[in-house]
Design brief:
Blueprint: E1 2-3, H1 6-20, H2 27-40, E2 44-46, E3 56-64, H3 75-87, E4 93-98, H4 110-116, E5 119-124, E6 148-154, E7 163-169, H5 171-185, E8 188-197, H6 198-204, E9 206-207, H7 209-223, H8 228-238, E10 255-264, E11 270-280
Parallel strand pairs: 2-5, 3-4, 4-5
Antiparallel strand pairs: 1-2, 3-8, 5-9, 6-7, 6-8, 10-11
């Protein structure tokens, strides 16, 4: 067990950004929520092996629609989502984990853990970020014999889009409901879900996923003084992949603006919404 600090927040966001593979939230959001977590307390990171097999762990995350650009998630939304799950669960919740690493998703559970006296479990559903809530569920999405509780909280207050929703049922069916709620709230919404025993996490999760992001982030921070090439070399070394030099290094590339169009919503409705994406050449 170890206490998480503001330096850990900075490292988690950096390392998580690499494993995000282009997803997993936003850097500013990760720093903001992580900073709030260590500002109100000292969230504790524990190995799942430190917990008894029957200790209940929940997943804290943010659910998003790729084209959503009117979202609003406050720190209190993450806390309330976990609190509502605890209120509707017949048992005691001990820890929080994240379904994935990412720019902000690596620290998803740190704030509610600090606020509610829970521990952050050093495990992730996936090492990298992924596009759907069913991913990162450690195989629960395909199970029809497991009744889950899923909660979402958040949305634009000034437009009347704020939502609180608690649903029970199979992960596959309830996940579809939450994705619709995310879209209705403005694009992204804080969530808590899947109360499961530590024994299940030990067997199905990516154990040590948070530490992996932290170690990579700290290595990247140490390499920053030596430039972008040193950072890339460090990343490749840490994840045991060779770094092949290309015609241009990252710092020599040109950033262009690409326009993407999402043609359908999650339920098949056309949106016609276009978003801008920065691409690097």
């Amino acid at each position: 067990m170890r206490e998480l600090t503001i330096k850990d927040v900075q490292a988690a966001v950096r390392g998580g950004a690499v494993f995000a593979s282009g997803g997993g939230g936003w850097v500013d959001h990760g720093l903001e929520i992580g900073g709030a977590a260590v500002g109100i307390g000292r969230p504790k990171l524990v190995s799942v092996d430190e917990l008894p097999d029957d200790a209940i762990i929940v997943t804290a995350t943010a659910i998003g629609a790729p084209a959503g650009n009117e979202w609003e998630m406050w720190g209190v939304d993450y806390i309330k989502a976990v609190q509502l799950l605890m209120d509707n669960f017949d048992g005691k919740v001990v820890g929080i984990m994240t379904p994935q690493n990412g720019m902000s998703s690596t620290i998803n559970g740190w704030l509610p853990a600090a606020a509610l006296g829970l521990v952050v479990v050093d495990a992730t559903g996936d090492i990298r970020a992924h596009p759907t809530g069913k991913m990162g569920s450690m195989g629960l999405a395909s199970r029809t014999d497991y009744e889950t509780i899923q909660v979402v909280v958040g949305g634009r207050r000034d437009t009347g889009s704020y939502l609180e929703l608690v649903v029970k049922g199979t992960p596959a069916k309830t996940s579809n409901i939450l994705r619709t709620a995310s879209d209705m709230s403005g694009g992204f919404i804080a969530s808590a879900r899947h109360p499961i025993p530590a024994s299940y996490v030990k067997e199905h999760a990516a154990i040590g996923g948070i530490t992996l992001a932290l170690e990579l982030g700290y290595a990247m921070i140490e390499a920053e003084a030596h430039g972008a090439e040193a950072i890339m070399d460090t990343v490749c070394k840490k994840i045991e992949r060779p770094h092949h030099r290309t015609r241009q290094s990252a710092e020599e590339g040109r950033s262009l603006l690409r326009r993407l169009r999402y043609r359908h919503n999650y339920d098949g409705r056309r949106t016609g919404r276009a978003v801008d994406a920065a691409c690097h050449e």
